[in-house]
UniProtKB/TrEMBL annotation:
Residues 55-189 form the SCP domain. This is CAP superfamily protein. GO terms for cellular component: extracellular space. The keyword Transmembrane does not apply. PROSITE patterns: CRISP_1, CRISP_2. Residues 1-23 form the signal peptide. It comes from the Eukaryota. The keyword Signal applies. Keywords: Pathogenesis-related protein, Plant defense, Signal.
Amino acid sequence: MGFSRKIALVLALCMAILHFSHEDEQSCNQPEDYSINAHSGIRRVLSAAPSTGTTSQQAILDAHNKVRKEIPSLEPMTWNATVAKFAEEYASERKKDCALQHSDTQIYGENIATGAGKMTILDAINMWCSEKDNYDYETNTCGPGKACGHYTQVIWKNSTTVGCALSHCVKNDGIFIICNYYPPGNYIDTKPY
């Protein structure tokens, strides 16, 4: 190994040690350092210390059901182990690259997000639900040039069960988050709620 490669390796190790030794506290509220990318997926712009990814099933259900409760005709969602297993398997596939790419399943509805650092499943749910402001209930459409499909998936009347997963990606400080919903929403000529 050449001298310059050794120096680069030592510098990379020092940066990693410094990065992981700096822990900051963050609540489960919507992070301030997120943006929506061109694919209407969510990416964390700034990185922080790694996430533990230990969001409880109940916290995930509570976050979904808080939003669903705002629409009187909606039933609360419940956790579905089969759906969660699918989400875990797909999150594991994305571990290699953290690509913001849907699974293309026809069986489940799906919301995905990518990020870094301490991003949690609750952060992703909060971001998806922030699209509520882009949704026009009267016309069942998103505002011009706006995304609202993540929000409508959360409030889809027929989607009564959910399963979510988070994986830490090998690439950078990446996080991949997925929530799948069953039954999936049918967006053709119907309102979600």
